[in-house]
Amino acid sequence: MAKLLSLFNYEKSKEVFLPYLIFSSSQKKNLDFLSPSLMRISEDLFVIDLQITQSYWEKRAKKESKEPQELIEEVFQSYLPESPIQLFCEHPFQGLVFFLYLKEQNSKGFFSTHSLFARKIYDNMGWHSWIWAARLINDCFEDNNSLVKDRKNFSSQLRRFLSFIERTDLTEFSDLKQAHFHEIQRRFQGFLGKLWLWSFPQAEESEDLSLFSHYEKLKGFAWIPYENSPKPQTKTWLEYPLSYWEEIKPLLLCDFEKLSQKKELQSPYKLLNIEWSFTLYDLSQLKQSIPFKHPLCLSLERKKDFATLTGQFSFAFEQFKETLKEKNHDLDVINTPLILGWTLKVSQRVQIREKNQNFIFESNSEVQSSAEELKELNNKLQKPLESYVALEHFIPGLDFISQDLHENDNPLFNEKLLMPKPFYLFPKERKLSASEIVSSQFLDRSSQDWWNREETLDSVRDCFICQLKNKELVFAFRNFQGEWFQYGY
Known about the structure:
By secondary structure, the protein is an alpha+beta fold. The protein contains 14 helices and 16 strands.
């Protein structure tokens, strides 16, 4: 049977992009190579939500003259070649039922629930895989405290349902396909009704399904995001309240040292975002997000005495004081922060590996600056510029590789794609008036999150180094509407 399935396992569809991919893997980390949204159903069973990155895969496939799912297969095989079964499906539960059936048959390869062969099997499948899937999903939701009211007395209701099946002599669960889920729900309570709705999602679709939100497509299925690993963090409690940066800085340096020792943050891992949470004198909490436009390597930072981190955090502390002042402007309280302690949590990180750079393309951006001009600018700044070569990747932070301004023997090197790195990146850009800008040096045209936008132009930004009237050199961008924004120093 397994050999027969492998012959007809995948009938590629040129019309339908199936939004979920189910697979098994003993690997528990670095599974976000197709999409950042992942759910863990059981110990070694995972489902990937491909809807978030659908536009990316469709555009990538078009460039390579392939079907999106064909390209996804190739990427999957390069990352997890040991995974025996991979199943594209319309709904996680529907896919789980079919996946468990394939697993029992010792099948191998890629499958799609939309292939004619798979539909035929699904419509003639016995109850064993369906019951197995129902119990697995119930256990998953139980562990995560999800759909508690719906699942009340699930075991007893499932026994009643199985007795009903036995009495009516229904050997295949598709024999009840025409039964509306409301009928199942009315007789056997809520969760069984939901399971039935999820078993035949195509029966409940409308022509306007593409307009529905992500969660409406799941039809009440509780999507539980899977964390590859706990987010690294440090906590600091003070003996007495502190208010000034000069007092806080040496303690932060100790925290940076602690973070740099954590295995989860050592090379090849790099930081994308740190969340700084303060506990104030009244025990209230305030959070400050500190993003990095380019992933930050802590081991390299340590060699530089955490110079970049210290600079970022000093700016963040000033913003924190402004936030506190604005929060208390109507209250008769002192706006000087009295801090009792804080937590540093690495909310986003990324692993830079050679495999991240598989899909390199030639940019069509019109770049006017030259490497020589950037080198000249580099000599005039206190902090040396860093640059990168742009790549196409759906995960922010993996869409470039570091590139020294003087290193041109790299086969990926392209002088037109060099980009200086801001020393400090604002959490939220600040609007600039064109009258404030004395001169500007064009750097790059970027469109980092184009796959999430309905109108591609919304993501287009022309980046510049600008000199303002006050003699400051700042990083700014101009959007396609001609508006200017400062995004860093």
